Amino acid sequence: MLVGIVVVVTLVTFVLVRQFYSALPVMPWTAIPTALLLAIGEAYSGWMTKARIDRRPGTKPVEPLAVARLAALAKASAYAGAAFGGIFAGFALHTVQLFTRETPRTEFFVAMGSFLAFVALVGAALFLENSCRIPKDPEDQRPR
Description:
This protein is mainly α. Helix content is 72%, strand content 0%. It has helices at residues 2-20, 31-53, 64-95, 102-131. The chain is elongated, with a radius of gyration of 19 Å.
């Protein structure tokens, strides 16, 4: 589903940017550190949540409502990251065709960096979502 979102948004963005590229302002680079910081935060939250759910020594038990909120955050981040990643991929797809000019070349690198940062955010969100799962009870796994 997330790959489908990236592909559709990339194609729509490519068509729109191709039509309106000259009227768009220069792409800011600030999406890269923002998405990377969000990815780091979600990956750390996933790591800590998994440790707390598994009741590793030195960790406090986790509240079920907090886990539900983290799972909702992870799902929303994955979809938003896929959508924004698609936007930047569509922009990069258009600017790579104009690579001989200085401004589109700079914008290509910013768009690709932003795309990769949002891919990292989607990966961290999926890790956080997976970390929120309750481990199966060993008694439930026995064959009957």
